[in-house]
Specification:
The protein has 238 residues and is α/β, with parallel strands linked by helices. Helices cover 20% and strands 22% of the residues. The protein binds S-adenosylmethionine (SAM).
Length: 238
């Protein structure tokens, strides 16, 4: 089923249930840039036709406010403010609330029109936007990486490419939507609108096949949703 035909189905939330049909075995994945661009063009994560909307997980106050509180407290705990790189910044409703806690805030997304819109809408001396594919392109240098509900949409191969580049950073704040309770981690998906929750799986970069190496880990926040899922934010020191 071509992805375009999904555009007729406009659903509201949660984004992980707004998935296209299970891919046929011989289905070729769309390039991630095209898939993400279409999500915003067709408002597949919700929002009005005229707006860029990254999903209710980026807007619902019960989800966003505790996240901003805990991450801003972390950023504020440094005497010398950190340079932050927000990979997959989306519509920037969340990142926008963190800019003032960083020395420099570099926000990156794969969708060109979204980055152009963010550049017009969010202006601060310490803020810059870049349109990059974080799986393929070189990433800006920074002290701390924020990856919020991005890897959950990507195939294991793309996650692996991204993780290889993260070893250049000191701190990572990673947020993933995962099933509540026990689950089989890292079942592969095609990159796009849906996430592993539909397969009763979720991403855990510390276990196979990724085995991402860190020196310290702390669970910063868990927020339950109404669909037997949990949005988990972890802090890693490399
Ligand atoms: C669900 S949204 C989350 C947005 C934001 N992090 C937040 O929490 O509000 C996921 C974002 O990741 C971006 N993204 C997905 N794959 C990407 C890639 N390979 N490179 C850069 N951005 C990507 C999408 O375009 C989308 O804006």
């Amino acid at each position: 089923m071509p992805l375009q035909s999904l555009s007729r189905t406009k659903l509201i939330f949660p984004e992980e249930f707004m998935t296209k049909k299970e891919p046929k075995r011989n289905k070729k994945p769309w390039p991630t840039k095209d898939a993400m661009t279409q999500i915003y063009e067709k408002n597949l994560w919700g929002g009005n036709d005229s707006e860029f909307y990254s999903g209710q997980g980026s807007h619902q106050p019960e989800i966003v406010n505790p996240y901003v509180k805990v991450v801003s407290a972390f950023l504020n705990s440094f005497e010398t403010p950190l340079t932050v790189c927000d990979l997959g910044c989306g519509d920037f409703n969340v990142g926008n609330q963190l800019v003032k806690f960083a020395k420099k805030y570099i926000a990156v997304d794969i969708v060109p029109d979204l980055i152009a819109r963010n550049q017009k809408m969010f202006i601060a001396e310490n803020l810059e936007f870049h349109c990059l594919d974080i799986a393929k392109d070189d990433l800006p240098s920074a002290d701390c990486v924020i990856l919020r509900q991005v890897l959950q949409h990507l195939s294991n191969a793309e996650v692996q490419y991204i993780l290889k580049k993260l070893s250049n950073y000191k701190y990572i704040i990673l947020t993933e939507h995962i099933p509540e309770g026990d689950f089989t981690p890292n079942i592969d998906i095609i990159s796009g609108q849906g996430i592993r929750l539909k397969k009763k799986s979720g991403l855990d970069v510390l276990v196979p096949p990724f085995n991402f190496k860190i020196t310290k880990e702390k669970q910063l926040l868990t927020t339950k949703d109404d669909w037997k899922g949990v949005i988990l934010t972890r802090f890693f020191e490399l």
